[in-house]
Design brief:
Blueprint lengths: L3 H7 L7 H7 L1 H10 L7 E5 L17 H15 L3 E5 L13 E2 L4 H18 L10 E6 L7 E3 L3 E3 L2 E7 L2 E7 L12 H8 L3 H15 L5 E8 L5 E8 L10 H20 L1
Antiparallel strand pairs: 1-4, 2-3, 2-4, 5-6, 7-8, 7-9, 9-10
The protein binds adenosine-5'-triphosphate and magnesium ion.
Magnesium ion binds next to strand 10.
Length: about 270
Amino acid sequence: MMTKKEINRLMGIEPTNYEQENKNNMAYWFPLLQMIRMRIPDTILIHTGVCNLAPMIDNKEIPGLDLFIERLRSAVEEIGLPCFLRTGMTSAKHGWKDTCFIESSDKKYLISHVYRLVEYSFMANIIGLPLDFSIWAIRRMIPTYRLFTDFNEMPIAKERRLFIRDSKVVCNHPYWPADCFQRRHAEEKIKELQYLSVQDNDELKAMAEYVGDYFTGYWSVDFLQDDKGKWWLTDMAVGERSYHYPNCEILNRMNTESNKREEKNVGRE
Ligand SMILES: Nc1ncnc2c1ncn2[C@@H]1O[C@H](COP(=O)(O)OP(=O)(O)OP(=O)(O)O)[C@@H](O)[C@H]1O
Ligand SMILES: [Mg+2]
């Protein structure tokens, strides 16, 4: 019988790189951002501890669930409503008001949001282990200037994704590609969403490079603009595991260069 590894190789599926996956977890990057006093929303991280949430998706009873939800509830009350909920790995943002947007500290309401995030974590990695959901974050909501709503009432505001490599910004993209939305929006709104002033560009570059001094290698860093124009760092991920515009010239140049390096190495064998 073929092993899972052999099946994946045959299907062209890359094996999960768990070292890289762990770096995407908030448990890895959040404490360091806090230590260097980056502008990040107030956040309480909670570990599930002995409570294993996985059997939730089979509607099984979860020992310790009440205590875990009680810890979440007290964090929600400390941060204040509404607030943002995610696991260390994902927010299932496309489900917004049923997933990461929290406007009540009611026990049943919190359980239903936790359930959706656990379910999403299984679906997000159907070919391997589910995304880790042992770390949960309750975050203060950043008030934004919403241009429109999409994805189950999510307010869409100006947001950027910068890629840094060895402390240097390599590129800076709008977080939301123009064609990613579920609903149609006026062209001027999309243009405004994707516009970045020189001043904002300089500010983001400085913030990302500062982060780069503490995170070696290749990273993506996401920033959300608040309703006063200030930028907040919301999310990070290892560069190789981050959505990157396929038509990005810099990405394509990097890929060609690394292909050339690989070809050279093959030639040497
Ligand atoms: N504290 C917050 N206040 C307001 N909106 C937020 C907050 N945190 C996140 N968001 C919104 O939710 C989106 C998803 O959040 P986040 O990046 O934490 O989740 P993710 O699942 O890791 O996303 P990605 O797919 O970019 O990796 C953000 O891009 C932003 O629009
Ligand atoms: Mg992320």
